[in-house]
Each structure stands twice: as structure tokens, then as C-alpha cells.
Write a structure and sequence with these properties.
Elements (H helix, E strand, L loop, with lengths): L15 E3 L2 E3 L6 E5 L6 E6 L3 H16 L8 H16 L2 H12 L3 H25 L3 E6 L2 E9 L2 E5 L5 H15 L2 E5 L8 H11 L6 E3 L4 H9 L5 E5 L2 H13 L3 E5 L5 E4 L5 H12 L12 E5 L3 H14 L18 H16 L3 E4 L16 E4 L6 H4 L6 E7 L1 H10 L3 E2 L3 E3 L3 H10 L6 E2 L13 E2 L2 E2 L12 E8 L7
Parallel strand pairs: 7-8, 7-10, 8-9, 10-11, 12-13, 12-18, 13-16, 15-16, 18-19
Antiparallel strand pairs: 1-2, 3-4, 5-6, 6-22, 11-21, 14-15, 17-20
Helix pairs in contact: 1-7, 2-4, 2-5, 2-6, 3-4, 4-5, 9-10
Bound molecules: nicotinamide-adenine-dinucleotide.
């Protein structure tokens, strides 16, 4: 493989963005970021300690309680968010390239989710907050009640490595629009791109302390979750970490939203148009090399058309170009880290030792010896109770399970601890809608799967608690307050 040449980014990030300034770390930890396609060093980042997190939280608290942010109007905040939008949009190309180098995401997808979407979300919440009523008056038995919606307070945002920019801004944009302040703790696997948000915030003139960014590992992440001056944790990551974070937030009665793992089903109906299904398969089942929480990695196929569906899925996987994520012709880049590669290969080995039939892929691709590449892999004849059909693999590995009749398809789709994404493939959209309504999942597509940033997104069951995106996401960053007043308020 020849890697695209001429890549330039400012890669070493040895300071944190706290209180509107780039500050020296209080500890000595560093993290060397490696390029997913080569395994070679990409840059160095400082790793935060509990003390760095504490400094960031205190800055966020001051900005809210003493600084101007807590007293801004919605229009003033919208104006700041629009400047932030422009500063981020100007960096979109460089940011998407950087993320692809960090985590192996194909560049076209990265341009959409790490380039365009974050700026779009800031713009969307700037517009929304100006039209969202934050105070109303209603009659009460003693006079009137003024019902206000106030910012939740200081938000600790914790993000994973798979879609780092958009997942961060899915929290930051509604939080800032609502009047909260934020401490962002990105994941060490994508150590470098989070600070682009600091560059853009500084250029946009966000008041000091409104957005603070400290790269840190799990321990300092836990210090953010339990910090007494934090009012809410907005977490995206694994269900295992979500359980710990949710438990701590329960202990301290802290608000939290949890966007967690998934093992979603693509339900192929017996009237499917196979060409359309195959055309949508990459986005539905293999997005971001399978490193996507909503990936529909369990394909449920009707027994009446089972053989042709297995052939179609195997043919699609075999035909995916694996290689440099910066090459627009590449459909499947590398895994984000060596640990992720080992995890995926471990599950492929598990599949090989089960009764399932390997029909495509099955290990590392020939000729790609550097970096963390895996061949798109398909197992057919998989019992839905098998570990490869129940556990989140987070790589380009799908299973195919046969079923008889729509009721069994729905039962199998729901036979998972998760409920995050999904899809139904059919020539009859009404039939697809009827089935989509019956499956317990947070989002589901009919004949395609593409996230709609204007609609609420999140999981049922062990896939999480709460919703991000859409106007509904503002609710997670606003608290109701009722002020009992006299009837005179009704005449205001
Ligand atoms: P992870 O849970 O290991 O880490 C996520 C983030 O949480 C990282 O920043 C990590 O440092 C931090 N963290 C981990 N344990 C913590 C703790 N106890 N306290 C505080 N912080 C902690 O997940 P990952 O491997 O980075 O990401 C992959 C996972 O994220 C997958 O399970 C995927 O499904 C999930 N995910 C979910 C969504 C969604 O919207 N539902 C979106 C993307 C990814």
C-alpha cells in the first residue's frame, strides 16, 4: 500500500485548553498517538491527571457562576455559537484528515462526521435556542407560576474514539446553547483532534472557561464523573464503562446521559430487492470499518431467500477495497488501535471455532503488513445466541442468521441486550414501517440507514439512557424551575 503523501497537520498537543488559555499540564503523563494505517507515531499529547481535571472543572464553574456566561441571553449565546461554527468549518478538511489518520475512518465518512457535521450542529443549536421558549407564565391557585428553563450547570462530556468530533459537538453544542459550561475529556486513542475545538473556540472568542478540554485516560475520566462541582455527565462509550459512570451518577444524584454500545439487526424481508440491499449494505453494516455503535452487524435473512442473500453479502464484503483511509476509493480502513485489531481477530477466531460458516474474509488482508487492517468478514448460519451475534465486536464482521416469518425476524432482532440501531429491507415500505414500529430500538431505517442529525438519537435497553441530537437534545441541558408569584405576572 502506498500512503497518500503530503499530509501536514500540527500534531503535538502538550498543553490543555482551560479557562480560555493553553496551559501546562500539572502532571507528567504523555501519550504517543499512532497512525492507524501504519502503526507509526503521529504526534504526542499530554495526559491529564485528576488535578488537571479539577482545574478545568473549576474554570467551568467560575464561567457559569461568576463569569458572563451564566448571565447571557439566548441571542448572545447564539452569536458566540455562530462564530464558533465559522471557526470550526474553516478547519473541517484538516480535522477530517487528522481523524482518519488517528482512527482509520475512510476519508469521505470523516469529511461528513468530523468535518461538516460538527459545524452544522453548532449552527443548528444556535438557531434553536433563539426560538425555544425559556420562560412562561401560567395561572396557579394562588396567583401565577413562572416556569423557567435554566441551564443544568457544569457538564462533563466524555467521548470515545470512533467518531470523536461529531460525538463531542453533539454534547457541546446543545450544552452551550442552553447556557451550560463544559469540560470535554476525549479518548486517548484519538488524542489530537479534540484540541481543534479549543483552537476554534479561542478564535471564536468563547469567554474563558465556557469550554475546557483535557485529554485523559479512564482514571482522570472517573475523577470528572465524581467531581462535586459537576452537575451533569454526558457520556458516549461502551456499555461496561456506562454502567460504572451511571452508578457513580446515581450515588451522587448527578444528571447523566449514556450513549452506549449496540449489536443492531438488519432485517431482510422476503420481498427485498437484493441490488438495493447490497447498495445500502456498506453504510448500514460496515460503516467506519465496523467501528460504529449503530452498525447492523446481525443480518437476519428469510429462509426462502437465504442462499442468495448469503452470496450477496459475502460478495459485497469480498469486494470492499481495504487500505489507506485517506484514499477516497477505499471502503474499509484499518482498526483504530492494535488492541482493537486483537479484539476483532479474537472474535473472528471465536466464529471459526463455532458452528458458523465463514463465507468471506476471516483475518488480516495479504499485503497490508503495517497498520491494523482486517478483511471484511461474514459468518453465515449463525445461531443468534452465539457470542459473535450477541457481543459488540466493533470491526468489519457481520453474522447472518436465518428466520421463518416476520414474527420470528422481530423476535430475533429484539433478542439482544442492546437496542440502538437497525434496518428493514423490503420492496414494500408500509410493511417495513410496520416491522420497524415493532422492534425495540432507538433508531431504525427502511431500505437505508443514515443518521438524521435533526431527530433524537439514542438507545433502548443496555444501549443507553437519554437522547442526543434534534431539538429534543436541548432538554438534557435544561432544568425546570417554578416560581410561585402573584397574578400580576399573568399581565406581563
Ligand atoms: P470506552 O467506554 O472504553 O471509552 C469511552 C470514553 O470513556 C473514553 O474517553 C474513556 O477514556 C472514557 N472512560 C472509560 N471508562 C471510564 C470511566 N470509568 N470513567 C470515566 N471515563 C471513562 O469506549 P471506546 O472503546 O472508546 O468506544 C467504543 C464504544 O463506544 C463502543 O461500545 C460503542 O458502541 C460506543 N459508542 C456508542 C455511541 C452511541 O451513540 N450510543 C456512539 C459511539 C460509540
Amino acid at each position: 500500500m502506498t500512503l497518500t503523501t503530503g499530509r501536514t497537520t500540527d500534531l503535538d498537543r502538550t498543553r490543555f485548553f482551560i479557562d480560555g488559555r493553553w496551559v501546562e499540564p500539572l502532571g507528567t503523563g504523555t501519550h504517543v498517538a499512532l497512525e492507524a494505517a501504519t502503526g507509526e507515531p503521529l504526534g504526542t499529547a499530554a495526559l491529564g491527571t485528576d488535578a488537571d481535571i479539577d482545574a478545568a472543572v473549576r474554570a467551568a464553574r467560575r464561567a457559569l457562576d461568576e463569569g458572563p456566561w451564566g448571565r447571557t441571553t439566548a441571542s448572545e449565546r447564539a452569536a458566540v455559537l455562530r462564530r464558533f461554527t465559522a471557526a470550526l468549518a474553516a478547519r473541517a478538511d484538516a480535522t477530517s484528515t487528522l481523524v482518519s489518520r488517528e482512527n482509520g475512518m475512510p476519508i469521505g465518512l470523516s469529511a461528513a462526521f468530523n468535518g461538516a457535521a460538527p459545524a452544522g450542529l453548532l449552527q443548528m443549536y444556535a438557531d434553536l435556542i433563539e426560538t425555544t421558549p425559556l420562560e412562561s407564565v401560567r395561572p396557579s391557585p394562588a396567583g401565577s407560576t413562572v416556569v423557567r428553563r435554566e441551564p443544568v450547570g457544569v457538564v462533563g462530556a466524555i467521548t470515545p474514539w470512533n467518531y470523536p468530533q461529531v460525538l463531542a459537538v453533539m454534547k457541546i453544542a446543545p450544552a452551550l446553547a442552553a447556557g451550560c459550561t463544559v469540560v470535554l475529556k476525549p479518548s486517548p486513542e484519538t488524542a489530537l483532534d479534540g484540541y481543534v475545538l479549543g483552537d476554534a473556540a479561542a478564535e471564536a472568542g468563547l469567554p474563558p472557561g465556557v469550554l475546557n478540554i483535557v485529554l485523559a485516560g479512564r482514571d482522570a475520566g472517573a475523577a470528572l464523573v465524581s467531581h462535586p462541582l459537576v452537575d451533569k455527565i454526558a457520556f458516549t462509550g461502551s456499555t461496561a464503562a456506562g454502567r460504572l459512570i451511571g452508578a457513580e451518577c446515581g450515588r451522587s444524584i448527578r444528571r447523566c446521559s449514556l450513549e452506549l454500545g449496540g449489536k443492531s439487526a438488519a432485517v431482510v424481508l422476503d420481498d427485498v430487492d437484493l441490488d438495493s440491499f447490497v447498495a445500502g449494505l456498506g453504510a448500514a453494516s460496515f460503516p467506519n470499518n465496523g467501528q460504529t455503535c449503530t452498525a447492523q452487524t446481525r443480518i437476519l435473512a428469510p429462509r426462502s431467500r437465504y442462499a442468495e442473500i448469503v452470496d450477496a453479502v459475502a460478495g459485497f464484503a469480498d469486494g470492499m477495497t481495504v487500505g489507506d483511509p485517506l484514499d477516497p476509493a477505499v471502503a474499509c480502513g484499518p482498526m483504530a488501535s492494535e488492541a482493537q485489531l486483537e479484539r476483532v481477530l479474537g472474535y473472528i477466531e471465536l466464529g471459526r471455532r463455532s458452528d458458523a460458516r465463514l463465507v468471506a474474509g476471516g483475518g488480516r488482508p495479504a499485503g497490508l503488513d503495517r497498520g491494523w487492517f482486517v478483511r471484511p468478514t461474514v459468518f453465515a448460519d449463525v445461531d443468534n445466541a452465539e457470542r459473535i451475534a450477541q457481543e459488540e465486536i466493533f470491526g468489519p464482521v457481520v453474522t447472518i442468521t436465518p428466520y421463518d416469518g416476520d414474527d420470528e425476524a422481530i423476535r430475533l432482532a429484539d433478542a439482544s441486550e442492546y437496542g440502538l440501531g437497525g434496518s428493514v429491507w423490503t420492496s414494500d415500505e408500509e410493511r417495513g414501517l410496520a416491522i420497524a414500529r415493532r422492534i425495540r430500538t432507538g433508531t431504525i431505517g427502511i431500505n437505508y440507514y443514515q443518521q438524521d442529525l435533526g431527530a433524537p438519537f439514542g438507545g433502548m435497553k443496555a444501549s443507553g439512557i437519554g437522547r442526543e441530537l434534534g431539538p429534543e437534545a436541548l432538554d438534557g441541558y435544561l432544568e425546570f424551575k417554578s416560581i410561585y408569584a402573584s397574578a400580576a405576572q399573568l399581565d406581563r
